[in-house]
Specification:
seven-stranded mixed sheet; 18 strands; Urease accessory protein UreD; cytoplasm; UreD; nickel insertion; chaperone
Length: 266
């Protein structure tokens, strides 16, 4: 396991770690022939369910801190069914350096495979700086369910600086490239055009070749007290994206649950 290092150059301090998960179809079920722990990531395979392999990503140390460079590389091979979760929230914290932390998630899904990436929320603590990316590379017949939620600041504290980028490719073609920035130097992040004073945000992405396309956008939430959410089809692909913002993570979760029900009923 990689330990924390604090060299003279503050830009080089922190943990460098990449963990790998690879799932493969084995008869009527999915196995996980590769789980490589690294740095704070401890990978634990949980009880399979209905032919799906399930892996929990457990953090064995406080991370990400300033200066950390963390990555998860997750692959579902042809016909595999894989669900990856985290048991607890991820908290971005300030570190011994002013350098930002990075956390990159790479999801690769082969033909006829299905992958669910369902982490617990990310909390941007005061004083932290985190740049998070999620890159999804789908084969033409692959399916993915992705759900991410963010909380800006712990109780009674301002948020750190958080940027997120979600990039999706299908069959080598771009489907989505979404970038958000909150806190710190991000312009107007808490104004009416972005969060409108709310502290929690979330997004739900579903890409599935069996989805009905051509549906109009659906407004799910439009109440300042309960939050806002919209479910939008992505052009020229069997894909839908729900985005939500609210005062609490609980409210964001309810909005995304409603969005997922709409998608499942299509």
């Amino acid at each position: 396991m990689a330990g924390r290092v604090h060299p003279t150059d503050p830009e080089l301090s922190g943990v460098r770690a990449t963990a790998f998960i690879r799932a493969a179809r084995n008869g009527s079920t999915t196995t996980v022939p590769l789980m490589r722990n690294s740095g704070p990531f401890h990978l634990h395979q949980t009880q399979p369910h209905n032919g799906w392999a399930r892996v929990s990503v457990i953090s064995s140390m406080c991370a990400p801190l300033g200066g950390d460079r963390l990555a998860l590389d997750i692959t579902a091979e042809e016909h595999a069914r894989l669900e990856v979760t985290t048991p607890t929230a991820t908290i971005a914290l300030p570190g011994a350096t002013t350098a930002p932390a990075t956390y990159d998630v790479r999801l690769t899904v082969a033909d006829h495979a299905m992958l669910s990436w369902l982490p617990k929320p990310l909390i941007s603590a005061s004083g932290s700086t985190l740049h998070q990316t999620c890159t999804v590379d789908l084969a033409p017949t692959a399916a993915v369910l992705l759900r991410e939620e963010q909380l800006l600041g712990r109780t009674a504290e301002p948020p750190g600086h958080l940027t997120t980028r979600l990039t999706v490719y299908r069959g080598g073609h771009p489907v989505l490239d979404q970038h958000t920035a909150y806190g710190g130097t991000a312009p107007a992040w808490d104004g009416p055009a972005v969060l409108g004073g709310h502290r929690a945000a979330g997004q739900l992405l579903v890409v599935d070749p069996h989805l009905t396309t051509g549906r109009p956008s659906i407004l799910i939430g439009d109440d300042p007290e309960k939050g806002y959410a919209v479910l939008t089809p992505l052009a020229q692909h069997p894909a839908y994206l729900a985005t939500a913002t609210a005062t609490t993570l609980h409210q964001v979760g309810k909005l995304l649950d409603t969005a997922l029900e709409h998608i499942r009923n299509m």
